[in-house]
Design brief:
Strand 4 and strand 5 form a beta hairpin. This protein has 1 helix and 6 strands. 9% of the residues lie in helices and 31% in strands. The radius of gyration is 15 Å and the shape is globular. The model is unreliable at 96-105 (pLDDT under 50). The chain has one helix at 36-44; strands at residues 3-6, 10-13, 18-22, 52-58, 66-72, 78-83. The protein is mostly beta strands. The protein has a 4-stranded antiparallel sheet, with no helix packed on it.
Amino acid sequence: MQLIHCPWCGPREEVEFHYGGQADISYPEKPADLSDQEWAEFVFYRDNQKGPFPERWSHSTGCRRWFNAVRDTRTYQFLAVYKVGEPAPRIPGPESTEPTTEVRA
């Protein structure tokens, strides 16, 4: 079982959390003005990259708060966690020789 670091509660087992999709996706300012195609693209189309990827997570059985995390989609390893509204930490890409360090909020 993997431990995920909640920015408010500390490390907890992964079964306490729920995935919420790609982080830092802004809701459209005027959703009623979007065409069906534009709305479908907002709802269903997300990046699907290999390597470090910003995600939204909820500590659903703990404090019930949302937070962001950078997770390596190749290994499932969490590289960093940070509160919603904070800037994402700099995480080297997969080609980098710079060591990654876990960042805790």
